[in-house]
Design brief:
Helix content: 55-70%
Oligomer: single chain
Protein name: DDE Tnp4 domain-containing protein
Radius of gyration: 32 Å
Amino acid sequence: MEDEIVMFVLCKTLRKRYLLACKLDELRKRISAEILRLEWKRLVRTRYYLTRDCLKDPECSDWMVIWNNGLEENLINTTSLSRAPFEQLLGRFALFYKYAISYNRAGGRPRKLQHHHQVLGLVLAFYEGSMNYTLLCLAFGIPPATLSRVLNEAEAALAQALRGFSPARNVWPTLVRQKALARLVEARQPLLKYTCFFLDGKTYQIQQPPDKDIQNAHYNGWLHHVWNDGDTSLGFQRKLVDPTLNPDLRGDLSRLLPAVRPVAKALSGAITFIRQSAEWGMGSIEKVYGRLLHELPADVAKRQQRLDNLFRLSNYRVRTVGISQIRTTHLYGGDDLAVH
């Protein structure tokens, strides 16, 4: 009898110890999870950025060295413009960028960037390369807060400066210019008459808006070719799949009559050759202005402003610097004037 009582008490004690151990283990897990949550929250809220003490004086920054002593190729590599076009744009930019005097002249801290060429060089370097804010801070000697503020103001001023500026204009070719381009195309490919240009589209990535309704409203994932296999317009779909109007992209000419195959093959080669200019045109801007390879702002007005600036700058660069892949390697002749 006593042995049974001892065994019962022992089992009861072991059971109690087991339950306490389980509760203690669960409590340890909860404490560990809470510690991780607090530590993660602290790390997320902590921001690491450059301070003014580790930056050069803006008057002795890398940009000032390039501006005062750099060669033409150094300035082109940094801003995409040579010195003469840069100074021409600088004169226009200075009319719209006004320094904000937000300090007391008697004893306040002066502004970091004292010259207009520093501000214009900053925004052009931001557009031209894919540098992050840290590298731009090191190159121009300004802290992150100043960099962000100056970039926003400089982009708005640059948009005003480029708008209405003749060398940076976006215009449809005149009838005289279209005829000149058609003669250039016909000189390279006699089969293509009255063909002056090709059009193609371009898709860029944008940042994700925080509002879900805005995400759905501006979702750009549904491209036009996705609807070709739908039933929104069966009559139009049959026209799209017509091999006569839209030949097979794989170059399958066996379905054509034998008598027209050589001509169709020659015409296809001519179209492919001339259409290469449109392919180059799509990539020519982002090869110069690497900022297009990054996600564009989610704000519609800000994105529109940046795209307008970049495309106008590309036109200005072609017209003033004279660097054009299409003109120098594809279409060039007496009808290809330097300025249009």
